[in-house]
């Protein structure tokens, strides 16, 4: 029986999801270098031929999912950039920024296991760099039309690593604060960094 396109698409999505979940489980136990494609396919209940239809190797599986993760974060962060660049009143600025940060932290919470293995230092050397590049891109958009009281490059570097550190701390300490509370922290952080650094210029 030949499957229609919609059914095929659903099967592909399910296969990729199962492979990612298998990879996450294995990365909770060992480093990416110790993981084998055989282990992945056995855990995901997928044959090796199907695996190689979608991915070159285990690193390709990991990197493509990292890229998808960051693209989702970029999409959810657009509201923050738009608000910072606008002349929104403080009340509106706070509301939109808190909601957007809460949405970002909720997404991280929903993908807690994946973020945890990405931050554990055994999974991907590329993730910290890709994640920081994403953060720098967001900050560059926010300051594109603004003058800063300290050199632009120093500010971008310092704040992008500070954001990354805040998320790293939250994830590696068990996400004890709620996404809503982290949304508030994100607002305070951005109001003190982006707003204050441009004041008086």
UniProtKB/TrEMBL annotation:
Domain HTH tetR-type: 13-73
Pfam families named among the record's database cross-references: TetR_C_8, TetR_N
Record InterPro entries: Homeodomain-like_sf, HTH-type_Tx_Regulator, HTH_TetR, TetR_C_Firmicutes
Coiled coil (residue ranges): none
SUPFAM superfamilies: Homeodomain-like
Residue ranges for the DNA-binding region feature of this UniProt entry: 36-55
Keywords recorded for this protein, A-Z: DNA-binding
Example GO molecular function: DNA binding
PROSITE patterns for the chain: HTH_TETR_2 (PS50977)
Name of the featured protein: HTH tetR-type domain-containing protein
């Amino acid at each position: 029986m030949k499957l229609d396109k919609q059914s095929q698409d659903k099967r592909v999505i399910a296969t990729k999801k199962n492979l990612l979940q298998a990879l996450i489980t294995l990365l909770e136990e060992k480093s990416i270098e110790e993981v084998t494609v055989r282990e992945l396919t056995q855990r995901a209940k997928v044959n090796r031929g199907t695996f190689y239809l979608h991915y070159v190797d285990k690193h390709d599986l990991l990197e493509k999912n990292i890229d998808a993760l960051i693209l989702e974060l970029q999409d959810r962060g657009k509201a923050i950039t738009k608000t910072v660049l606008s002349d929104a009143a403080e009340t509106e600025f706070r509301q939109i920024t808190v909601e957007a940060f809460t949405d970002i932290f909720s997404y991280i919470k929903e993908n807690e296991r994946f973020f945890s293995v990405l931050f554990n230092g055994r999974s991907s050397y590329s993730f910290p760099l890709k994640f920081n590049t994403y953060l720098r891109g967001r900050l560059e958009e926010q300051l594109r039309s603004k003058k800063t009281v300290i050199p632009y490059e120093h500010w971008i570097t310092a704040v992008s690593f500070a954001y990354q550190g805040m998320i790293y701390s939250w994830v590696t300490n068990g996400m004890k604060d709620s996404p809503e509370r982290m949304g508030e922290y994100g607002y305070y952080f951005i109001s003190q960094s982006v707003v204050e650094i441009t004041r008086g210029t």
